Amino acid sequence: MRIEIYLRRAAARFFRKIAGVCALFLALPLLALAAPAIQCAPGVELRLSAPLSTQGSLLLVEVRSAKPLAELQGEWGGRAVSFWREDGPRDLRRALLGVDLEKPAGAYALTLTAQTQRGAAVSCRALVRVRAGRFATERLTVQKQFVEPSPEELQRAQEERQRLREIFDQVTPERLWRGGFRVPLDGVATGGNFGRRRILNGHPGSPHSGVDFPAAAGTPVHAAQRGRVVLAEPLFFSGNTVVVDHGLGIYTFYGHLESLAVKAGDVVEAGALLGQVGATGRVTGPHLHWGLTVSRARVDALQIVKLLGKK
Ligand SMILES: [Zn+2]
Predict the structure, then answer these.
(1) Domains in the chain, please, with CATH?
(2) How far is ligand 1, taken at its centre, from the CA of residue 139, in Å?
(3) Which of 43, 169, 214, 236 could be 287's S-S partner, Cβ–Cβ 3.0 to 4.6 Å?
């Protein structure tokens, strides 16, 4: 009897020990996954707003330096990362990393090179992991002409896509926005459909790169932040469209407007009226399609409100 109790206790001790080891063993690779591998020169600190990213998301990068920096350059996934300097006594630089909604999952190196005002070179390196996003698939029925456009319409749509690509490729070197970004509709905090894979009249289309806000036609649409209007005209798919350049490779896109209140070249302040909600272009009803492009990456626009929202 006594031996049996002893054996039972010994077995319990053994399993507790094993469980401890197993938990540790399991935790180590998990910790390695969660913590971004960051290596920086002494005196420089690099922080990311999240240890992992997902397709279609934004990351805020912060670089603090004990010694004032004269310049800072970054590169991630083959694209330049544009930093801006925050006002304050310490040298704090920020940048946004946009993870395109179709960027393949994997680990991508973020490299920073900087020079202090005294001419010393400093550098940082971090591995930023991208996970696959979970996006719903939706089936839509729209007017036949938008799924099976005529050769002329197809050519127009292709030319417009190419024009937009060229716009998003431009990086205005200065920061045009000031302060937090807002949702373009008053009293609205959230929208839907970002990243949805769409099947239009039975044909798979490209993923939905914006956030949709259903609203009554005529509802005012406001600029998310200060910037320069680089496009304000009707496009085949997105109807009456406005694109605002906020500088540093950051653009917001407003589609399906009923009417336009701005023209290309206008400098608009945060909250300026851009137009009214409508149902122009390829739509199933009146709504605002709001897009955000950061260094050409199509990301969830609501994330810029969260990361650089009102302070
Ligand atoms: Zn949309």
Answers:
(1) 38-131 (2.60.40.1930), 137-307 (2.70.70.10)
(2) 14
(3) 214
Between CA 236 and CA 215 the distance in angstroms is: 21
Measured in angstroms, how far is the CA atom of residue 282 from the centroid of ligand 1? Answer: 9
Q: Which residues surround ligand 1, an ion (CB under 5 A)?
A: 210, 212, 289
Mind listing the pLDDT tens digit for each residue in 227-259? 999 999 999 999 999 999 999 999 999 999 999
Contact (CB, 8 A) for 288 and 243: no
Distance 69 CA to ligand 1 centre (A): 41
Q: To 10 degrees, the CA torsion angle through 186, 192, 195, 200? A: -110
Distance between CA 270 and CA 255 in Å, rounded?
18
- φ, ψ for residue 23, nearest 5 deg: -60, -40
Sheet holding 91-98, edge to edge: 44-48, 58-65, 91-98, 84-85
Q: Give the pLDDT confidence score for residue 146 in this predicted structure.
A: 63
pLDDT tens-place string over residues 129-161 = 999 998 988 787 777 666 677 889 889 999 999
* Confidence band for 3, pLDDT divided at 50, 70 and 90: very low
22 φ, ψ (degrees, to nearest 5): -60, -45
